[in-house]
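Journal club prep — side note

Before the paper discussion, L.F. wants everyone to see what a predicted structure for a comparable chain looks like in token form. Sequence:
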Amino acid sequence: MVQFVILLITHLAQLVTAADRHKIVYKSLQEANKECSLYNVPGGCLPRCVTQITRDWNDTVGMSPVYGRFFQPDPNDPCSNNRTERCIESKSSLIPPKKTCLRASESVQCFMDHYGEINMTAPQFVRFTKLQDVQLIFECAAMLGYSSKEQLDALLRDSEFKRQETRCVFRCVMIRSGLYSDSEGLNMPRYYVLCGGYEDGFYQQAAECSARLRKEVPCDDKCTLAQRMANECIGVDYETSIMQSKGNTVNTIYAIQGSEVYNIDGQNANSNVALTSVQRDKTINIENTNSDLNKFGDTINVDNQP
């Protein structure tokens, strides 16, 4: 199943048209290598730089399994994925967490040794960062006529998509990020990258869900159809958008004050909280655990709880 998905992603990457581009980014490993060379990255840290550009490496969680989209797996080798995972787990257990460059390099080597033949020249889809997601929301809201603080605040608070305006902004974000089109529906190969891979059978499950919704939702309600496809066909198992909350989990909350955007990422109660204040001339980052976070004027206070 994994090999089939990788082959499908590689094939579709070559079929992207100019009309489908919008904000979509495709990069090859060759392009990422050239980009890193411009930054004078030390040789031992080059694999980490490259896989950060392709959004596959994270110093905390390690290598994403969808890094395999840059490889051509052998369809007759069903064990390549398991061997790669075992190799990465073995290497990670021996390398201290602070040696991030070495951990990234060894993870790349595991893919090269066990997963398949590397393809340096084929561009592949690169998922957006959360900051880019925020920009897409603001751009879509502005294009649809929602640009005041009150309108934006109402949109961002509508995590259950009760308002048609929110559903239409969400549809715009999905289209501009290359995850959806009215004619084709959900772009599953790109969602595969966004979600970090799927369980076996997920494609069929999503296809059946999409077909059901096309019958249930009136054909002239494009915004509701797009939003429900993302939430019900993918969001039930995977996070699909910063505008979505699932269960008692709040993925991302954005509060707008003048020229400042406050981004709070949390998982659930008593979990790590990260706050980023993006302003014209500075960025403030705070990470905290089991705390209440309050902002007063230009000062950010973190009150620790016992």
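L.F.'s comment for the group: The mean pLDDT is 78. Keep this in mind when we get to the figures.
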